[in-house]
Design brief:
This protein has about 425 residues and is of the alpha+beta class. It has 16 helices and 16 strands. About 35% of the residues lie in helices and about 20% in strands. The structure holds adenosine monophosphate.
Length: about 425
Amino acid sequence: MARPSFQAAPGTRDLLSPDTDRWRLFTALFAEEAARAGFGQIVPPMFEDAGVFTRLGEASDVVSKELYDFEDKGGRRIALRPEFTASVCRAYAQNRQLTPWKTWYVGSAFRYDKPQKGRYRQFDQVGAEVIGSHDPDLDIELIALASRFYERVGLTTTQGQPNSVTLMLNSLGDKADRPAYLAALQSHFQANLGELSEQSAKTLELNPLRVLDSKRREDAELVAAAPILSDFISDEAGAAFERVQAGLAALNIPFTIAPRLVRGLDYYTRTTFEFAATSLDAAQNAVGGGGRYDGLVADLGGPDEPGVGFALGIDRTLLACDEASVFAAPDTAVDVWVVSTTGDLDGLAITDELRRAGLRVDRSFDHRSMKAQMKAANRSGAAVAVIVGDDEAAAGTVSVRSMRSDRQSDDRPQFEISRSEMVGPIKELLLP
Ligand code: AMP
């Protein structure tokens, strides 16, 4: 076959059924969990003034290298959102809400990254954020929301299973705790500069914290030996972190303390966390993460309200589900296939009537033979075929045939019933 003139751009994909059905079920389950926890949905714009995102910190890759930004026809600097948190904070600053404001979202994010399995330029996230409270119980509530949701799709925070996700937890302390820690980090890396990768040496000049985020093998040893933040955090931040750990233990949500977990964006304070799927390769095993961002709303011109939230990557979580053989795509077969050989409008009308009765119904087109239509009915996976030929049309009836593959074909019932009374018996055939 000739290659079509256009292909989806690098790092983007077409999602087709049944993957889209699975995607919809995934997001519906997230919406349900979020609603159970009292979160209302936000649908922010897909693009913003680029400044909303550049505030996230020039030293992070997401901002410095991966931002999809451009000038629009009005001369504005615009960026496609690389994540949702900044948009949620901007939205809060613009449309003040009662606090704590609990909101969730679903949608695409865009990052000009090197495409590979589990890493795309357009990818989807679900997430939740709470603005306006310092209470660490909200950190716990958010982690619990993510964990309960993972459970619903068949993953588990219990360790040692093929479908495990590991919850890694850290506290980055408060902004005031940062300078002493940064100085300690700076002198640790400076003293060993020769052993640091070239990229990390550059990052060090911008923000030593980001060096901890390096996944480069050359840096691994130095990163592992770096001073840890928990030795530098204030009593208050320390107490909040204790509360988070106690709360997770009370809810039976296992976690691992990861003292060097800093995450990819600069705005995090206090609690930070990440979920890593056991079934995925280490480079792309982060299926979700989040934390506190107590200065971000103020940075975006809003009131000085704290915030905490998380985002889960849909594409990557589904890959983890594939690898763990959980959360298969839902069955998308129709219930009924309508077979009509009258050449009249019977097939059309019966299909419409059954759809209006709430059934999933499809039919053959192009005036195919009875045999070809029955073949299509079989292939469709429909549990019932409704057949109308000249005899049925003349008598005002339809023939109903069970197609269920769990029965022998000779004991699959077929009967003729009045067309005006067909819905009840058809529904009965569809019962499990
Ligand atoms: P982050 O804001 O980088 O922590 O992203 C949150 C989650 O989104 C990650 O844990 C991933 O599951 C997912 N994610 C981030 N970047 C990508 C990408 N380029 N492609 C696919 N998923 C991604």
